[in-house]
Amino acid sequence: MPERAPFEILVLNNIAQVGLKRFPAERFRVDNEAARPDAILLRSQDLHAMTIAASVKAIGRAGAGTNNIPVKAMSERGVPVFNAPGANANAVKELVLAGMLIAARNLAPALEFVRGLKGEDDAIAKRVEDGKKQFAGMELPQHTLGVIGLGKIGSLVADAAIHLGMNVLGYDPEITVDAAWSLSARVKKAHSIDEVLKASHFVTLHVPLAPRTRNLVNAKNLELVRPGTILLNFSREGIVDSAAVVQALAAHRLKYYVTDFPDSLLAADPGVIALPHLGASTREAEDNCAVMVVDQVREYLEHGNVSNAVNFPDMIMPRESPYRVAIANANVPNMVAQISTTIAKAGLNIHNMLNKSKGEMAYTLVDVDSAATLDLVAQLGEIDGVLAVRYLPLRD
Questions:
Q1: 263 near 254, Cβ under 8 Å?
Q2: I need a surface site. Which of 52, 225, 279, 368 has the fewest CB within 10 A?
Q3: Strands, DSSP E only, in the chain?
Q4: Which of 363, 383, 385 is nearest to 80 (CA)?
């Protein structure tokens, strides 16, 4: 009882070909008009406004953020939403460094000054000499960079700043073990956002947008910054309160706000250096994101393994049988026992089994010693709390 072949992949945005080519042509059909897709790949397309076909078993976002995907609704259907954390980290790191240098050396107003020069060479040379004093800046060494969020991007920014001679103060109450291991010992640990804002000349934000991080930087804590602080946001728009930034710029508490997310409040402020969401806009980042998300979606469709799903636990179980059942279920008691009993009553022996949970979602992989039937799949699907069941026999 194999699943429909080939798998259909609906592509909604321009996903790098280096990634799409990793779908074997004999087992996958990649199309931008697939009517009954097994998976959706996208970048910035807003899925909230779309009807997502019942056939969809996985969604892959070729980037880090998943705000454009109805993750909760997909969880309720037992559909994992994959992203590509870290795949664009170097691109964002380089843009953060560029933003720091643009602000530190007053390059944005200096460029505007030069664009306005007119006249003969001698006249322009005189105006340059007379005018350059107003753009005198500062060098980065010995200044303090505060990094809020020490995941892949934040850690890379911290490391680069250290190599540029800066002092680095980091804050991340939810830092992972892997991130902690990769973080330089020269990053000084802060115990609060307020501590970072008080002590830093530059502050850069690298946290996801969630209810707890919305307006993380706001009017109240911007009162704490030292005059002339440079704030950088290459994370998400809603993490910084734009109205509070405008007020802090007017009061000269902030010298510049460097952001990848312009809006109507920020656009006309001379203290704002706004870029058009360029953080991941490099060929290398787009390739990395495409390769990463394609590999994850393919592994899930073919083998049920999960890596980097925002709503499912990471779970890799090597194949020990050609017959595998994958079950997405609510994280409630007695689920594993019910699954095991149902499989046993069908006369199948469980060769290997793995169950993990993440928040309200749990996921179970079961390798059995002989082929499953449609009846077994239906019976598993009828267990209260089971959201989706897939039978994944090995393909030739």
A1: no
A2: 52
A3: 7-11, 28-31, 39-42, 58-61, 81-82, 144-148, 167-171, 187-189, 202-205, 229-233, 254-259, 272-274, 323-330, 350-358, 361-368, 386-391
A4: 363
Q: Which domain holds residue 246?
A: 89-274
Q: What is the pLDDT of residue 180?
A: 82
Q: What is the DSSP letter of 170?
A: E
Q: Would you say 258 and 102 are in contact if contact means Cβ atoms under 8 Å apart? A: yes
Q: How many CB atoms lie within 10 A of CB 205?
A: 24
Distance separating alpha carbons of residues 229 and 201, to the nearest angstrom:
5
Which tokens belong to 175?
Answer: 């830092």
Sheet with 167-171, side-by-side order of all strands: 187-189, 167-171, 144-148, 202-205, 229-233, 254-259, 272-274
Q: Residue 42: beta bridge partners?
A: 61
Residue with tokens 């058009």: 276
For residue 299 the two structure tokens come to: 């592994």
Contacts of 304 (CB under 8 A, 6+ apart): 317, 324, 326, 365, 390, 392
- Whole-angstrom CA distances from 106 to 96, 111, 256, 261, 270 are 15, 9, 9, 20, 11
Smallest Cα–Cα separation from 101: which of 34, 156, 157, 48? 157
pLDDT tens-digit profile of 212-244?
999 999 999 999 999 999 999 999 999 999 999
pTM confidence score: 0.83
Rg (CA), the chain: 26
- Closest by Cα among 43, 138, 160, 38 to 91: 160
Q: How many domains does the chain have?
A: 3
- Same domain assignment for residues 301 and 351: no
Asked if 120 and 80 sit in the same domain, the reply is no
- The CATH number assigned to the domain holding 302 equals 3.40.50.720
Q: What is the CATH number of the domain that holds 357?
A: 3.30.70.260
